[in-house]
Amino acid sequence: MRRTLGIGTALALALGLAACTTTPDSPAPTSPVVQLGAPGEPNRTLSPDEAGAITEPQHTELDADFMLDMIHHHDQAIEMTALVEKRTDDRDIHLLAERMSASQQDERTLMVSWLQERGVPVNDQGHDAHASGEGAMPGMLSDEQMAELEAAEGDAFDRLFLVYMIQHHEGAVQMVDELYAAGGGQEPATDQFARHVESDQGIEIARMQQMLAERAG
User: Residues 198, 176: contact at Cβ < 8 Å?
Assistant: First the structure.
């Protein structure tokens, strides 16, 4: 996936300054700030005034919408993992669900804090409506799919849980892709969280695909 970095996150301090000596009265040497060029373009050393004017990118409405939507996305995943306890005795499914529930709840807490720190209302009716039904977020299970999962037991539940959770996780990764494609995710905290979601859920998708293949065999 290709990322376009904002100027605030695309800076590097030049390395390998020649050794020099200073006296107590002379100012310490400073490292030039280099702005990394776009692919195929050269880097550019910023002037002291340009370097001093650099500020970190701030969050945008795209970032806030992403966090609000992802909270609802996580809520459904937590609801799905809660079904495991009474519907299967498979130890691997139980361990998987416990890990997912813990990580998704921790991430949910982080997202709520992110919104509160930036003065964004956490309870947004528009995003509540977007959580399910027509035009729902990527990967979200429909009411019919949730009912099917709730009604299943044993081996049938195990397979259905894996299939639907893979669908759910792939939707979360798609949401990250869409955030960056729209120009969001430039604020460092948002970028860090989105990359974490992408990496963590990608690892879990691979694990669930393996578990599903084992049960199919």
Answer: yes
Which tokens is 69 given?
């939507």
Strand order in the sheet with 44-45: 11-13, 33-35, 44-45
Answer yes or no: are the C-beta atoms of 206 and 173 closer than 8 Å. Answer: no
Q: What residues are paired with 12 via a beta bridge? A: 34
Q: What is the CATH code of the structural domain delimited by 61-216?
A: 1.20.1260.10
Q: In whole angstroms, give the CA distance from residue 109 to residue 119.
A: 15
| CA 27 vs CA 20, 23, 53: distances in Å | 12, 8, 21
- pLDDT single digits (tens) 178-194: 999 999 999 999 999 99
**Of 17-31, 54-68, 71-85, which range is least confident?**
17-31
Q: How far is CA 86 from CA 81, 89, 145, in A?
A: 11, 8, 18
Domain ranges of the chain: 1-55, 61-216
110: pLDDT strictly greater than 50: yes
